[in-house]
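Hi there, hope your week has been kind to you so far. Thanks so much in advance, here it is.
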Amino acid sequence: MTPTIFETNIERILREELEKRGYRKGVDFCCQFPLRFSFILDFAFYKQKIAIEADGLFWHSKPKDRKRDGYKNYILKREGWMVLRFSEHQINDDVSKCVDQIERVLKKMKQ
């Protein structure tokens, strides 16, 4: 499958694990999903309103960026989205645990 234009390394790792488990990009989830309020979600299971953010150290370690992340979480939750954030360390250390968590949330939503 062709990579997303703005895909970071950790986004690629997460996407590949999702696809390995049978989730289809463009069908089950989207990458770089544009949302109101000038936000772009790294991944979105849009039917279930699950936002997944892959927080790289470079872009999410500064106080200004963390403040924007908090605001983004607030807005998303207010709009009915569930937000799952995974750090670069979590993804690099064990991406399967990250996707396990995503699958648990998806399973809960089906009940």
